[in-house]
UniProtKB/TrEMBL annotation:
Organism (species): Bosea vaviloviae
Descriptive protein name: Glyoxylate/hydroxypyruvate reductase A
CDD domains the UniProt entry points to: GDH_like_2
Domain D-isomer specific 2-hydroxyacid dehydrogenase NAD-binding: 102-273
Keywords for this protein: NAD, Oxidoreductase, Pyruvate
Pfam families linked: 2-Hacid_dh_C
PROSITE patterns, per database record: D_2_HYDROXYACID_DH_3 (PS00671)
Cited Gene3D superfamilies: NAD(P)-binding Rossmann-like Domain (3.40.50.720)
GO molecular function, one term: oxidoreductase activity, acting on the CH-OH group of donors, NAD or NADP as acceptor
Length: 308
């Protein structure tokens, strides 16, 4: 039986060293050194091998090294294979720190000050308290719920929206299609922390922007596929949206001549809002192997129907 790893090398080498000590009977191989594919029982990947559907007849569990699974084409993964995302406890912490930074940057109008600095302008703008701003978080999962709490702690009026009803102390919560417009109507800074699924693809579009208060701002830390980038550029031109922090784009990276690179009202970061850490993520994998061997469900098991 083999544990096959196919992703970034630094993490792979760290995991391999830990496996050699803690799982001496489970050979840990790093792609492309697969060995006998028929012996691969577990696989951890960002992108799976092209022949995932047919090349690994005894594969039982496919671990995503990321918190999302949208990069895997689930239709190609045999239906009997469990798909498990990475629920590393450091990921929500780092994400909440990034989101708070992004929202505070928009709130403090860092984009205007950076633009003024470029142009040698000393033009003070009156600062406001965070409590004057209503932040709305799309997605109240592992990441969205902690981001809400940190934003509330920073002083913002925070609400969240999810598919099912959630209760989070100090946070106004909305759920489902029926409460979507009310959520958008009270949101000055919108944060996207949804998984990318067939239902959420392109959700950040012109229709949505029109339902936000005029001059609202956007933080997209979900996936590039959530955002209609042309609609954002049009909404920035019209003033309906007044600024955005985008950690994810489609494609990544954007083509060199894409207008979002140089737009004065967009701050781009290269998909770094959060990431699983080699040390904590290997512990999650080892814990999941224990659960699987005990016949229990692994932490982070994906509902293949829902897509997250
Ligand atoms: P979870 O699966 O824990 O939470 C997803 C949330 O989204 C849930 O609250 C869920 O609702 C809600 N949701 C899903 N589909 C819908 C829908 N159609 N309508 C309304 N609500 C919906 O995910 P995480 O919080 O762990 O992660 C969220 C995403 O963040 C990841 O999928 C990934 O894309 C992104 N990410 C980005 C990173 C970066 O560096 N930029 C790093 C890590 C993750 P319910 O609770 O009712 O199920």
């Amino acid at each position: 039986m083999i544990f096959l790893y196919k992703s970034e090398a630094v993490r792979g080498n760290h995991w391999k060293a830990v496996f050699e000590e803690r799982e001496p009977d489970l050979p840990f191989r790093i792609w492309p050194d697969v060995g006998d594919p028929a012996l691969v029982k577990y696989m951890a990947v960002w992108l799976p091998p092209d022949d995932i559907a047919t090349g690994y007849p005894n594969l039982e569990v496919l671990f995503s090294v990321g918190a999302g699974v949208d990069q895997l084409n689930l239709d190609l993964v045999p239906p009997n294979v469990k798909v498990v995302r990475m629920l590393d406890p450091s990921v929500p912490q780092i994400m909440a720190e990034f989101v708070t930074t992004a929202v505070l940057s928009l709130h403090c109008d860092v984009l205007t000050h950076m633009d003024q600095q470029q142009r040698g302008l000393w033009n003070p703008l009156l600062p406001e308290m965070a409590g004057s701003r209503r932040v709305g978080v799309l997605g109240l999962g592992q990441l969205g719920s902690l981001a809400c709490k940190k934003l509330a702690y920073a002083g913002f009026k925070v609400a969240g929206w999810s598919r099912s009803r959630h209760e989070i102390e100090g946070i106004e919560t909305f759920s489902g299609e029926g409460e979507f417009d009310a959520f958008l109507g009270r949101t000055d800074i919108l944060v996207c922390l949804l998984p990318l699924t067939a239902e959420t693809q392109g959700i950040l579009n012109g229709e949505l922007f029109a339902k936000l208060p005029r001059g609202a701002m956007l933080v997209n830390v979900g996936r590039g596929g959530h955002l209609d980038q042309d609609a954002l550029l049009a909404a920035l031109d019209s003033g309906q949206i007044s600024g955005a922090v985008l950690d994810v784009t489609d494609p990544e990276p954007l083509p060199p001549d894409h207008p979002m690179w140089t737009h004065p009202r967009i701050l781009l970061t290269p998909h770094i809002a959060s990431s699983a850490q080699p040390g904590t993520s290997v512990e999650v994998i080892l814990r999941n192997l224990d659960l699987l061997r005990a016949g229990k469900e692994p932490i982070g098991l994906i509902d293949r129907q829902r897509g997250y």
